[in-house]
Amino acid sequence: MYPCSAQRTRGTNLQEVKSMDRYIESVLESVHEKNPGQPEFHQAAQEVLETLEPALKKFPKFQENAILERIVEPERTIMFRVPWLDRDGKIRVNRGYRIQFNSAIGPYKGGLRFHPTVYLGILKFLGFEQIFKNSLSGLPMGGAKGGSDFDPHDKTDDEVRNFCENFMLELYRHVDQFTDIPAGDIGVGGREIAYLYGMYRRITNNHGTGVLTGKGQGWGGSLIRPEATGYGCVYFVQEMLKTRKLDIKGKNVVVSGSGNVAQYAVEKCNQLGAKVIAMSDSDGFVHDPEGIDAKKLAWIMDLKNVRRGRIKEFADQFKGVIYNTSGSIWGLKCDVALPSATQNEIQADHAQMLVNNGVLAVGEGANMPTVPEGAEIFLKNKILYAPGKAANAGGVSVSGLEMAQNSQRYAWTREEVDKKLHDIMANIHKTAYDTAEMFGAKGNYVLGANIAGFLKVANAMVDQGYLV
Question: Which residues partner with 324 through β-bridges?
Answer without folding.
Answer: 285
